[in-house]
Amino acid sequence: QQQVKQSPQSLIVQKGGISIINCAYENTAFDYFPWYQQFPGKGPALLIAIRPDVSEKKEGRFTISFNKSAKQFSLHIMDSQPGDSATYFCAASKLGSARQLTFGSGTQLTVLP
Amino acid sequence: DTAVSQTPKYLVTQMGNDKSIKCEQNLGHDTMYWYKQDSKKFLKIMFSYNNKELIINETVPNRFSPKSPDKAHLNLHINSLELGDSAVYFCASSQPPNTDTQYFGPGTRLTVL
C-alpha cells in the first residue's frame, strides 16, 4: 500500500517557468510533510517542510501548498533554474519516538536553459 | 565537516556473502535511520533506532540487522546477500522532537552479482 502518491513522474520546464509537483497521502495521522531534493550520486536533502496547521509555506523560490481536507500537498518552484534539475521527493511522517519518513515515488525535474 | 558519512561508497559482492555498511554522524543526534533506494529511485525506510528503541519496517527481511556500537554510529549488517538486495542504502539521522529534519548520508551502492 503506497501511503504517499506523487505525480508527475517526470517534469520538463523552461528556465524561468513554474514547476509544480503534487502529492496525496492516505494516513490522517501524518503531521509532518517535507520535500527532499536529490542530485545524482547524492543523498536526499531537505528542501522545505510544512505541518498541517498552515496552508502554505514559502522559502525563497520554493512554496508548499497544503490542503488538509483533500489530503494533498504540492511543491511549487518559481523561476525554475537549470540548477534545480534534480529528483524531488515528497514525504510524510507521524508523531512518534522516531520520525520515520514515508516517501512518494519521486519526480525527475529537468529545467531547460 | 561531513554531517553523516557512510562507508564504503560502493560495494560489489557475490550472492550468499555477508557484508556490512558503516554509518557515522557528528550531529549529536539521538535517532538514526537506514533507507533503501531501489533502481526506480523509490526510497523506503528500513529501520529507525535510538538508544531506547529499534523500529523495524515489517517488510525488511531478518537477514538485515542494524547494530549501534554507540550513539554516533549505526551499521547495517546483511547476511546471505541476494540479487534483490542490490540498491543504494542511505543512512540518516535526526533529533526528534526538537527537529524533524533528517540528514542523509551520501549513500552506499550495493551490487550483488
What's the short story on this structure?
With 113 residues, chain A is mainly beta.
Q: What does this 3D model show about the protein?
A:
The complex is a heterodimer of chains A (113) and B (113). By secondary structure, chain A is mainly β. Chain A has a single domain (4-106), classed as Immunoglobulins (Immunoglobulin-like). In chain A, 0% of the residues lie in helices and 57% in strands. Chain A contains no helices and 11 strands. In chain A, strands 2, 4, 5, 9, 10 and 11 form a 6-stranded mixed β-sheet that branches. In chain A, a hairpin with a 2-residue loop joins strand 6 and strand 7. The N and C termini of chain A lie far apart (38 Å). The model of chain A has no long low-confidence stretch (mean pLDDT 94). Chain B is mainly beta. Chain B has one domain: Immunoglobulins (Immunoglobulin-like, Sandwich). Chain B has no helices and 11 strands. Chain B has strands at 4-7, 10-13, 19-25, 31-37, 43-49, 54-56, 64-70, 73-78, 87-95, 99-104, 108-112. In chain B, the strands form 2 sheets. In chain B, strands 2, 4, 5, 6, 9, 10 and 11 form a 7-stranded mixed β-sheet that branches. Chain B has a 4-stranded antiparallel β-sheet with strand order 1-3-8-7, with no helix packed on it. The N and C termini of chain B lie far apart (34 Å). The mean pLDDT of chain B is 92. Classes of the chains: A mainly beta (113), B mainly beta (113). At the A-B interface, strand 4, strand 5, strand 9 and strand 10 of A face strand 4, strand 5, strand 9 and strand 10 of B.
